[in-house]
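Thread: Modeling a multi-component assembly for a lab meeting

Hi all, long-time lurker, first post. My supervisor asked me to bring a structural picture of a complex we are working on to next week's group meeting, and I have zero experience with this. I have the sequence lines for every component (1053 residues in total). Could someone generate the structure of the whole assembly? Inputs are pasted exactly as I received them:
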Amino acid sequence: MRTSRWIKLAAMCASIVLMFGAVASAAVRGRLEIFSWWAGDEGPALEALIDKYEKMYPGISVINSTVTGGSGVNAKAVLKTRMLGGDPPDTFQVHAGQELIGTWVVANRMEDLTWLYQQEGWNTAFPADLLNLLSTDKGIWSVPVNIHRSNVMYFIPANLAKWGVGVPNTWEEFLEIAPKLQAKGIVPLSVGENWTATHLWESVALAVLGPNKYEQLWNGRLSWKSPEAIKVWEMFGEILKYTNTDAPSLSWQQATDMVVKGQAAFNIMGDWASGYMTTTLKLKPGTGFGWAASPGTKGIFMMLSDSFGLPIGCANRENAIAWLKMLGSRDGQDTFNPLKGSISARTDSDLAKYDAYLQSAARDWRTNKIVGSLAHGVVANERFMNDFATVMDIFLASKNAQAAANAAQAVAIQAGVGK
Amino acid sequence: MQSRRDQLVAAVIILPSIVLLGIFVYGFIAQTMRASMTDWGQEAAMSLTPEINHVGLTNYKELFSGFLNMRFRQDLTNMLFFTLLFVGLSLLVGLLLATLIDQLVWGETFFRTVFLYPMSLSLVVTGTIWRWMLQPRGGINVLPTLAGLPAGQFLWLSSRQQSLIFDWSHIFHYTCLAALIILALMAYGHWRRGEKRRLRTKLIICAVLVGIFASGALTRIRLLDFPEEHGFNKALWGVVIAAVWQMSGYTMALYLAGLRTIPDELREAARVDGASKFQIYRYVDLPLLKPITASAIVILGHIALKIFDLIFAMAGPDHYPTSVPAITMFLKTFRGNELAVGSAIGVILLILVSLLIIPYLVNSFRTGEQ
Amino acid sequence: MVQVLAVLLAIAYLIPVYMTVVTSLKAPGEINFMTAWELPSVPNWESYSIAFKQFAPHLKNSFILAIAATLISAAMGSLNGYVLCKYPIPGANIIMPLIVFGMFIPYQSILVPLFQFMQKTKLYGGLPGLILVHVVYGLPITTLLFRSFYEEIPDELLGAASIDGANFFGIFRYLIMPLSGPPFLVVCIWQFTQIWNEFLFAVTLARPDAQPITVALANLAGGQAVSWNLPMAGSILAALPTVLIYVLLGRYFVRGLLAGALKG
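Re: Modeling a multi-component assembly
Sure thing. I ran the full set together rather than chain by chain. Output:
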């Protein structure tokens, strides 16, 4: 009799556990799980897409799995533990380029989407430069949903007028203006936490090397130890002298805030900063805030793109394909991008739906030379990016261009960049 | 007395726990050790059937002497300084608080609650709050302005200043020095307790070490073929403050309990002998708190060696000046796809924690049996 | 003198709370480094409703996780403690330190095999899996604490009961359990706060729909946080349950701490 109580208790515990298990694994018919790191400011754009999808395919319930924080590491941790266990989400957000190819395509985890591109006529809808970044010789691996520009410099026109400085066209010009601003107690260039330093670095590298040599850095034809590459670090070091000392404790938004509040003159950031200033800070593009290509990169569009792919062995393949079709469509792109503050990856988008900044970006997208971003996973694989953070720190701590160049070369060899 | 059947039941009851812990602790540790000796992390690391080769201790060698793993070595340095400062300050502040509360006339429960409540918080919460408190242009740096003083200028978490700089390639030299200091302290203890034989052994070892150290032979063994400087990052102060704020209540509670178990007769006797209040504290109370200090050092020390969430929430994972091995393990594994290297860092952490824990466990369970 | 010092120190310990509350009640536009210490002109409760809306599912996850894992690990720990304390198991002298060692290991050293194991057993991603993990890694401390408590029960009492014909469960049910109330509470408080506050397993072993509150807070604070009012309100919401438990049941909380450290 006495033991029976214990059996009861044990049974109760077991049934509680089973109940949770049942709830968690209860398969609803027609699901689609989308994995992304979009939340906060970027959440509404994704939700608009999900709404659209649910209207197009009633009966499919969309599971919006979002993991943010930790500079994107948390999302990678969750995605990788799932993929390693053979439990992929139906589709997941990944930066177009090496972040996709170097991690997932080489590991044979993605389906080739060439047939979908042919079926939907996307081979002509997307620019060829972009298709190159999404492809290897074995196939096309993801559908780009947006295009962001990395090499943009932001400022407040009224403030510049007040301080009597113009917008620098080259870094040399910037270095001439900067001491004057500093003398007035203004930070010439605001920078935020670690990755924004890498973000600044890529704009400097593009300006110093020019687009061709910049690309050669990534296909292995230009050594990191070459005089030109060392020059990048030297210039970067000069520029850092005119940045704020508390950079590591600021988010990119706070670095942008410094410009808006008149504490800093310029900030180099991806064009999501336009979205932030327009939507969150309610500034008018053109008058409330101004922009230009970062110094020395006029006529070059350093791009990054969020894309979605089709993992091999996902649970709801058909639903995921329907999602990808919608993402690639003109309508899908024009739903998402005005809200996200990015431009459509297609060349036929309806510009009337976009604001002044985005219209100018879209024009540049169609005419400029296109290169890929390092900080946002386009040109180098994740292993390189992870170790490049160390290289950056070697430089920030020592300000030694030669040491940084040596380290970068060693990282490039280990990570197989340009192989 | 106990029936055979009951003993069998007892064995059956405990079996699941032992099996589970066997798998989850020892089985997994063995697997991690095996993974740490492979090259899992090459190009197709994320494949369902990755090509994994056995490479022996290469990953460990790379971590300690490879050019690109400079970050890991600074992590170890950061961890060492953080552990020393965190444990030392927590003990000191905890002792101060306990002594203070022991003397209070009123409000004991209130003050105890106030000093202990940070203990109940998640390290993520603590990290988030202190990240705001330690903003260089805000938080406690502007506190002096409320009294009309100039604002503080210290870059709490983002400073890149270093002090106590040493060359990693001479690490054996410095390890020898550290061993020497520890042995000398132990020898002093033996001398005070009059343990002559032990004192003699320790002194002989000390003398040998002094000889080796002074000869400079160890500076000739170079771990790296290039000089590499590491040191105490001042940015760590921010993390130390937050951690001490959180955990000093714990040491306070321990010391307070210790003070309360000291029989009043003992103090009374000292008072009769003419001891002042301070003398009683110094010669009666403090010596009796020693065993508590020993446990606290072990508990706090292992927390410090494992610290991860606090720094992750406070300074982010990519912040070199405050990085520790646990964070680099996370980045190597989940961002760099270098699972073998991540495992190796995990094993190194385990070894460091074991150096602290195993003597403690052996000691406490041995005395427990007597 | 002593009183004054105590009051000053108490203020210092409470400063972070003041800052957190004040900041959480400000409108985003009002948050400014220079005025960080001032009270909000008008309390803005919106941060709490936004934070709560985002947190609600994760709070639920945390409650389910912490309560289930606490109860199961406490129940198992109490049985284990009873067995290890009162029954001569062969090799018990070695078993106990081996069990206790499990509570000190850095979880980084078992993380990769752990998630592979969870994947293979299909337990990865949901709350049941997280509960299992917290139960297993909670066993060392619960076993240790209960064993220390039961050591205080004299063996003669058990001997007398077994002469009266009580078997294993009989003794446990009618002798041990009635004496286990306070220790059970101590263990539960300790386990609940530990599990509630845990981050590493939460971030690597849970799918987004099963993530507990600490991960949600890290997302809110480290993700797209533009202004500081939201993370601060979030911190308060995430901290509230454990702080409440602590303030209400502080006595037992302290006992748990002490037992963990002193009895080893």
